[in-house]
């Protein structure tokens, strides 16, 4: 009888160990399934961009789009994280949505700008200078219908490969021809 006691105790210990390991694996798998389901339910990027822009003050909004236009994604994420207090992943997602779906600054409680107000570009009291160069070629656009935010949208369009839309936006906000706008946009692909 004593000779069977040791093997039975070992067998019980192995069974308990297997049960604990299988329970742990099942919990992890359930957590991964929940995480994957939450990832599938993520918001539409355009809606996320609108919600994210609403959380920023005018100065934060301007700085964020300036950083996006300069290609400083990490600095933009850091700025958004500090401004809103959201987590790193949420800040990354928000900045990505804001970069791909640029949002104008709106005062809290103000109605969102409608498409009809977008027909005529706003004229600013200053002239904005945008300069692009590659090698020996330099192009400059100077206009009182451009600012950091609009130029940032144009650069974002150009970097995303939508050269035509970027050129159209540039001609709408300046007094240059489509040919000149396309030449300027070609220099922005760096």
From TrEMBL:
Top-level taxonomic group: Bacteria
Protein name: Uncharacterized protein
Alphabetized UniProt keyword annotations: Membrane, Transmembrane, Transmembrane helix
Organism lineage string: Bacteria, Bacillati, Actinomycetota, Actinomycetes, Micrococcales
Membrane-traversing stretches: 6-26
